[in-house]
Each structure stands twice: as structure tokens, then as C-alpha cells.
Specification:
The complex is a heterodimer. By secondary structure, chain A is mainly beta. In chain A, 0% of the residues lie in helices and 48% in strands. In chain A, the strands form three sheets. In chain A, strands 2, 5, 6, 10, 11 and 12 form a six-stranded mixed β-sheet that branches. A four-stranded antiparallel β-sheet of chain A has the order 3-9-8-7, with no helix packed on it. In chain A, strand 7 and strand 8 form a beta hairpin. By secondary structure, chain B is mainly beta. Chain B has no helices and eleven strands. In chain B, strands 2, 4, 5, 6, 9, 10 and 11 form a seven-stranded mixed β-sheet that branches. A four-stranded antiparallel β-sheet of chain B has the order 1-3-8-7, with no helix packed on it. Chain B is globular and about 45 Å long. The A-B interface holds A 4, 42-46, 49, 89, 91, 97-107 and B 3-4, 31, 33, 35, 40-45, 48, 50, 55-56, 59, 91, 93, 95, 97, 99, 102-104, 106-109.
Chain lengths: 114, 115
């Protein structure tokens, strides 16, 4: 079946540090890949997505590139802010259109300190 | 506009009791999903509705769990004979599910605690 593995947290960084959160996946075919974010006290929000190999998703300074050869979708940001403190979930869906049965990773908690 | 809302935000019940969790999706969204998130885990898919019908209920853990969406809008997740292992945050998401716009919008969740 489909699965997502992401690095365990918590990750603690100083403000303006570089962020990488690793994510690898197992799936048949050509899944769509996502990063979701959950800020303290809020619901899950879609951060970015990529629907085919070599696509780069980006939003709010975060980026992730769909690498089919390494089955990876690592999240990066060049300079984190305190406001980026949240839990980040890597996820996949078997298809890019219509119904999306999303499989999530276990989440990585990021804490950014001033 | 209003997002996905879920009620109650917290529910504490005793083992063996029956509970209902409600989800109000974003108006006009045809697709509705339920997920369960246990402590320290990512959300796990339970069931997907397209309109009024459950198009995929493969994630429901057993026959104690049931969900309805009678008018294609509000959905209720029903759990019979609750067990301590049912304790989790239950998330609802809705989606417009039209070409190029199938992002899921999540509600804040209902935290269920079974004593």
C-alpha cells in the first residue's frame, strides 16, 4: 500500500536558519505529493503540492521538488521565522484529479526560536 | 467565507457509549472526507462522500463506525459502543472537487476522549 515516511521531530532552529524536512514515499504509479502545515490551535492547511515528477511546489518561501528517482519530496526554506513554528505533514494521493484519498506521514514539529 | 466547522470541539464519553460528531463543510463543496488522528500520528483516512453517497468507506476500522451525509452537506460520524482506543482527534475536510480544484480544506477537529 501507499506510505509516507518523514523525519522525526521535533526540529529546533534559530530564526533565519535553513530548514530541511525529509520525506520519502512508497506508492504505485504517479501519486500527487503534498506538504500540509498545522499551526498551533489551527486546522491542517495545504502548504504546497506537486502533481508530477520534477515539479516544484512553493508557497510562503517553502519549496519541495517531486523526485521520482529517489521517491522523495523534501521540504526546504532558506530562512525560517518564528511564525513558521508548526507541525508539518508530508502526504500523498494516488491521483491528481478528482477524489483524493490522502495518506499522511506522522508529522514533524518545527520550533523556531528568536 | 466560513471554513469547515466541526462540533463539538471536545467530547468526553465513557466506554460503551454512543457518540455523534458533526461536520459542516464549506458551502458548495461536493466532496467530504473524515480522518482520524491519533496522538503523535498523521491523519488516517476513514471515509469519503461524493454528494450524499459514501464513495469509499474502506478506512472505517470496524462496524461500530458509521457516517452519513443525507442532504449532501452536513455529515455526521457515528461511533457505537465506544472503546478507549477510539480516543483521537477526528478531522473533517471538504473539497470543491472540480477540475484543477480538488484541494481539501480541513476543519479544526473534534477531540474524542473515551474514559
Amino acid at each position: 500500500g501507499n506510505s509516507v515516511t518523514q523525519m522525526e521531530g521535533p526540529v529546533t532552529l534559530s530564526e533565519e536558519a535553513f530548514l530541511t524536512i525529509n520525506c520519502t514515499y512508497t506508492a504505485t504509479g504517479y501519486p500527487s505529493l503534498f506538504w500540509y502545515v498545522q499551526y498551533p490551535g489551527e486546522g491542517l492547511q495545504l502548504l504546497l503540492k506537486a502533481t508530477k515528477a520534477d515539479d516544484k511546489g512553493s508557497n510562503k518561501g517553502f519549496e519541495a521538488t517531486y523526485r521520482k528517482e529517489t521517491t522523495s519530496f523534501h521540504l526546504e526554506k532558506g530562512s525560517v521565522q518564528v511564525s513558521d513554528s508548526a507541525v508539518y505533514f508530508c502526504a500523498l494521493s494516488p491521483n491528481s484529479g478528482g477524489y483524493q484519498k490522502v495518506t499522511f506521514g506522522t508529522g514533524t514539529k518545527l520550533q523556531v526560536i528568536p | 467565507g466560513a471554513g469547515v466547522s466541526q462540533t463539538p470541539s471536545n467530547k468526553v464519553t465513557e466506554k460503551g457509549k454512543y457518540v455523534e460528531l458533526r461536520c459542516d463543510p464549506i458551502s458548495g463543496h461536493t466532496a467530504l472526507y473524515w480522518y482520524r488522528q491519533s496522538l503523535g500520528q498523521g491523519p488516517e483516512f476513514l471515509i469519503y462522500f461524493q454528494g450524499t453517497g459514501a464513495a469509499d468507506d474502506s478506512g472505517l476500522p470496524n462496524d461500530r463506525f458509521f457516517a452519513v451525509r443525507p442532504e449532501g452537506s452536513v455529515s455526521t460520524l457515528k461511533i457505537q459502543r465506544t472503546e478507549r482506543g477510539d480516543s483521537a482527534v477526528y478531522l473533517c475536510a471538504s473539497s470543491p472537487e472540480v477540475a484543477g480544484r480538488n484541494e481539501q480544506f480541513f476543519g479544526p477537529g473534534t477531540r474524542l476522549t473515551v474514559l
